[in-house]
Amino acid sequence: MNRRKLSLRRPLALVGAAALGLAAALMVASPASAHHSEVDGKAVCDTETGEWVVTWTVTSFAPQGVERYKLVKADLTPAGTTVTEIRTTEGNDYPYSVDTPVVGVQRVPGDATSASLTVKAKWKKERGAHLERDAKSKTVELGGECKKDVPSTTAPTASFSPDCEGTVNVTLGNGQEATAAVKLTVSAGEFKETFTLEPGETKTDIQVPADAGEITVSQEGKEEPVGTYTWTEPENCVAPGEPEGDIELTCDEMIFTVKNPADGETVTITLTPNTGEPQTLTVAPGETKSATFPASEGLTVTPSVEGEEGEPIAWTAPDDCEPGAGGGGPELPVTGAAAGGIAGGALALLAIGAVLFYLARRRRMTFTA
């Protein structure tokens, strides 16, 4: 029996060839893995604008000893969009550090279906530069479903408009897309009114009086109020000018004068004597008007504004008058010391005259001689 001798030459040759092939593959692959770019992207929908916001991150894996690089390509889709921070650079400027990823933001229309970024890097070496062999790209699928949030028009609404006097105008509304009527109640202190509004209906003529307190608008069947409001003075309020009052006493007459400044408001005052007919003065801004009453012993005149009465004001004869003056006595000339007596009598009545508008208005009228 003849035995053939086993040869190892062929298996060793195959192993050697495989090893050479693997080494060659590693040599080819090594440079590619040593310096290249990586691109990553994430997208979120911005519901305030209805746009996709894509955040791109570019990371550089540089050759050994390289610290800076630039991009010679930075292409985007969709066309016409831009990205922050990620840009191409000309010349010898290498703006990016290999140690820090570059992050940029791209805004894309809400109906776009995808977005992409393609980059190609160039690394600065001690001598010259090294250009990335292949561009790197990333595509983010979007779906075209990003839409701007639209406020609901189904819920009831309440708005408040104050005036300078403290009154608040309340406007109620039922949503344009509401499917049923709503009952809304406006309450503030002793004020309380309920309104039923059909879908799409508004009510604009609700006035809450001054000093009523905090206003609450509530919906039937709901715990949370539709709206609340406390009066604050509007910024454009300007206090009107204050009218001035003057009382003059003579031996024969009692004269009331009201002077309204040009920036005032129309004021109406009724002067009622205890004998004789009352007189009413309506004084517009910029006007001065007077009312005269014949003097007599025991004469008093009571001022009133809008139904609110002040204290009666009594006629008192000036010091220089003849005894028994007033009520038709002989008329005496008023000169010298007599004029001083008139002024003194008017000054004596200043405290009484000051109440004229106090009860009826927040701003007072003061009387001067």
From TrEMBL:
TM ranges: 338-360
- Keyword hit for Membrane: yes
According to the lineage, what is the superkingdom?
Bacteria
Q: Which UniProt keywords apply?
A: Membrane, Signal, Transmembrane, Transmembrane helix
Segment forming the signal sequence: 1-34
Protein name per Swiss-Prot or TrEMBL: Cell wall anchor protein
Against PROSITE patterns, the record matches this protein to:
TAT (PS51318)
InterPro entries assigned to the protein according to its UniProt record, in alphabetical order: TAT_signal
Species in which this protein is naturally found: Phytohabitans kaempferiae
